[in-house]
Records
---
Amino acid sequence: MTPPADTPGPYRFDDLHALFVNCTLKRSPEVSNTQGLIDRSRALMEAHGVVTELVRAVDLDIATGVWPDMTEHGWESDHWPVLYSQVMAADILVLCGPIWLGDNSSVMKQVIERLYSCSSLLNDRGQYAYYGRVGGCLITGNEDGVKHCAMNVLYSLQHLGYTVPPQADAGWIGEAGPGPSYLDAGSGGPQNDFTNRNTSFMTWNLMHLAALLKRSGGIPAHGNQRSAWDAGCRADFPNPEHR
């Protein structure tokens, strides 16, 4: 891809920070096939200046529930507040995981539920807290369900306030049934042109859109401020008290 004429050199995204959350069911250091696909996207981001982090969610003690800190609701331990701080430090969030029974893993569902638990929090402009960030997903498996899983993840992210760029998902599935997984010898996964193309496009689109949002100050704060709505300032509605 040739940069625009006014761009002095290759695209750089040194001001961006990305977080990959691996929702595999396998605890570290067990091999994760999802990790193999993550590594491709992560390496591309880092090659262009993005600072990346990786978290394997199953390694954490994340409580079940829909409140920001479940220790305030009877749980003895909850690592979600720490992970949430990493989420909020990232301009790009990529949720990644395997397919089980044609759907996202239980860990993926739990991470999305806990993202939802913080969706009522606001930023300093009165918008929902996730505004101004972009999201994507990577899916692996040896059974059908890549697009179904991606639809669920990407819908959830945009509903919570993330901006989703074009073609913000990629995945790999082997032969249906008990066939090889992505990193297994002879699977063809790492060499699959379709998967590699989609992973590359997703990664570039995440970087492009995150840079556009960050460098322009995020989503404009007009007509989408929860704090203003609650105060009675409702854009485009008859509102004599807040002209």
---
Amino acid sequence: MATATKPTSGEPSKTEEKAQNDGELKKYFAMYTYHANRPTNQELGPDGDKDARKASVPDFLQREATSNRDFSLSVIATDLTAEDETDLREFIARRLSRGTVYGGVGNVNTVDIGSRVMACYYCLLRQGAHPDIERELESTMDPNSFYTSQECVMCFLSSPTSALELFRPELDLISEGVLPLMEQKSADPAQIQTHLENWYEKATQYVCRCVSTLREDVAYLINAALLEIHIEIVGAEQSFKTDIEKFMKACSLSDLLQQSCDAASQATSGASDPILIDIDEAGNAQANIRSPSRAAHRSRLVFENDLHRFENAEKSWFCEEWSKTLLKGGDTLNPAFLRQVIEDYKLHTIQDLNTLKRLIRQAETDHYALYRAYAFLRDCGCGAILLRHIWKDENTVSAKDTQNVLNVLEEFISETDSSTLAA
């Protein structure tokens, strides 16, 4: 199922020779700051006039871009050579002048650095209005039209095969972590440099550490992540606990379900398929109509003398297959491959969830469809996961007939093969 491939090396640029000689993946960072003129929110119209606000958004973005034609980027921290940093600076300046870089949203694109093409993650971080410059411009600029903001641009570069786009949430967190350092009264460049030096290890290597340490037992983590079961970790260092938390978050279906929710909210009212799951403003699932008892138990992962064991934890054969794919070919040191495997299996699970939804709707009036739904749950290997998320979908289970179908399916599965719903 996994489509990721092992990174391949090419001819290095001057800044990459040392890293290649040391056998390390070529990776760099750079952080810039500059002052920008931003239109005020008043340019978007009154809050109550939604049509006016919607119509003025393109004008707002255009005015924001054209108001910053002339600016200079100041490098705060980087490990690039002066020559390659100049190439990156020109790339970022072009993006900013076109107005294609938006605050708080990380982007991944390719950039020519020296004689080599690299993948570049870049994110604009806004610190707000700069009071000193704002006071200087008050006499010549209408304060109701523009304000002066101090901006930061974070850049992380690596080989195109490192698949930085798969690790965008982790890179976003690292970027946001710079803001508290910048907001200090005396921002320390050395402290910022230290925060950014190990960006690649922080953003990607956690998946390698989890798979290499737990091996086949990583299936327990996958099963718990998909079922949203908390695992208590005992005896592990805090750094590895953080790795496990990141790994389980990466395996969770929350991001894909959120995308499904957003897509459904934009669809017409006549759409045939309801939203898979309701997500509140904080990104959490809303209260269930029914909370499956299978997810109520407490699992533990205990480390003792370089050994580990799971207590009160279960796994399905689907999760075992998932873990075997992660270990396939001994590619546990390639985070891009491992993360691609995770994303492929998550997508497969969402597809199974949609299939089950359709079968359940048909089963409300068709007994043969009820049997097909049962056979699907029995054979898919992730029946407990699918049923849990179906129960959490208030749009799907609001009807009494749907709840009856789900109850019948759970009874059939538990009587026929309880291991199918291992959770």
---
Amino acid sequence: MSDNEIRPFRIDVPQADLDDLRERLARTRLPGEVPGGGRNRGLPAGELRELVEYWATGYDWREHEARINAHPQYVTEIDGQDVHFLHVRSPEPDATPLVLTHGWPGSVAEFLDVIGPLTDPRAHGGDPADAFHLVVPSLPGYGFSAPLREDGWDLRRIAKAWAALMARLGYDRYGAQGGDWGSGVSRELAKVDPAHLIGVHVNYLLTFPSGQEGELDGLTGADRERLAGLERFQGELGGYMAIQGTRPQTLAYGLADSPAGQLAWIAEKFAEWTEDGVDRDALLTNVTLYWLTNTAASSAQLYYEFAHAGWSMPEPSTVPTGVAVFPYDIALPVRALAERDEKIVHWTEFEHGGHFAALERPDLLAGDVRAFFRGLRQAR
């Protein structure tokens, strides 16, 4: 096998693994609850019980496995790590190459509803000039880009791997899009591969004050509410991040041994970070990918790398950047602070949707991605 070999890949989970999952779910033991504790203490047991029951008796992994397998998939080794990715070329020959990056607790399955509209807008009521060739990788340590072969896979290293992947696929000029960790990877691409990256579109952006005197003087009341939301995220809502950023291995013993535990750990985030939740099959497909690939520990390592890298103000970007703001996201960005760090040329505030925009509002996300890159193409 050559270092640059791209190997076809197809998901084919052994039936024994699915049988084992159902047997474990049937033996689920749930803890008691403090009366009246509510959601502030964690995911309610009643909600989890219903999800466990459906996962064990109603959810059909094979249906969703086939849906992912309907798209061409590959594995290639980059920087010593196997990287799994979907590569869906548009029927439009002049389509713009675009790398889509998920985050935690997402997966490549997160993007299934936007693949068609982005690769073949003609078939979805759009302009064929807005078409994309899509590359959708699994982050190192996530899904079928596992196991991790070494530590050190931080956002910049992942961005360098994505740049190498796009070059290996023959794409000299391309765009990047992402939410959650995918936003960070996409923005790092602007730092490591600006000569080839035409633009970055994100649907998640945290804007931290630098502490410089007078920086916040011109902010509106709405801006200050967003900063208060960021503080709440760093405190009350960020407990998962503190655990995964400090002791990911210890946490993973429970998640890797109990599917109900893995489900609760992820389902809580889909409940808290969305407007109305997501379709439960979509939720369970994401959770099942984490379970079947046994990636509770390896997926959390990115938090550890991030937490131990040391924080500093980001380098200003020179690559055109577009931001889609969905109001039910974890925390919302302040444009004045975003413009300090990014070359903002496109900013959209939506009335609906949350953190998992590709699942919640695929039409809005796909439309905004089209609009952003359309502006870049027209500017050339």
---
Amino acid sequence: MKLKREFYQLPLQFDLEKMQQEIAQFADSEWVPHHENFKGNSALPLISVNGEFNNDFKGIMLPTSALLRCEYLQQVIASFGEVVGRTRLMKLDAGCEVPLHSDINYHWYKRVRVHIPITTTDTVIFQCANKRIHMAAGDCWIFDSWEFHKVENNSNQSRVHLVIDFAGSSHFWDMIENIHEDGSTSRKFLNYQPKKRIELRTEKNNYQIIMSPGEVELLVNDLITEVQSYSQSSESTKAQFAKLLKNFVSDWRELWFLYGEDKTGWPLFHRLRNEVLKQASQFDKNIFIKNGTSAVKILAQLIIGPSMNVELALPTTNVIKSINKNESKKIGLTRNSTCHCGSGEKYKNCHGKIS
């Protein structure tokens, strides 16, 4: 999510000793390697799709069996009072790093990542844009994930953070607005309360089968604004790119008015987004946003990919049977599908590559 500054330290602190006790129960075999195989990066899902040990983004978010073994971590997550999405313990081994990247995909566009360090040292450094900080154990931070960021573990021990994704209610954002930039805001400590009954509110609706035209237009307009604010792209090229995207919005809305989410329209929605991304690919090397990311890559990850999620409507076998034979191999756009741009690469290794 885009923020007004690189880092915010939230006015919250947590029982470090209790958190360390709870994560100590997990065996090394329970940690899942990073889905992009970043060296020394692993995670343990606490809230995930259907409460299973997966890396999915789409679907009902529920506590995993690992979280149910951690009474205080449940209290920590619930203490925000927010509707919570993907939540996990994230481990970074000694001498390893989280490579430089930007979170430009749909999931993180309107969600923050709350970081609560549990085990760390002074030589673990978090960089966002040009600012570098150390997140102390037991503290609580959010950062601008739209900017390029990375983490370096320069110590001889593993670093573990509790990482919570959510969009945030007005109450949360009011708190953020009142945080002093110098860090002088007074902090509230969350005591461990044995056998306390808690209510965890988790995401139930996070992706649409067919994205509504209003949301498509909002995302497209945001991307056009980003492109237009970057002076190094030519005005004529930016205008052509904007025209292509505005036409896409108009045609998507027309299909929506005709079909809505009805499966008879799925091949037409897919054909439209497929053609738009193919046309947009000509701009891949000369249209960028301020942080240096290709606007076409953002288009693919933020809008084109998430605009259809027909796997949420029916089991995969039924989805394939419900559309014509020529479209059946292309409609789903899973991460193992061939990318729309025509590169021949799998979507997950091309415009669908995420961090």
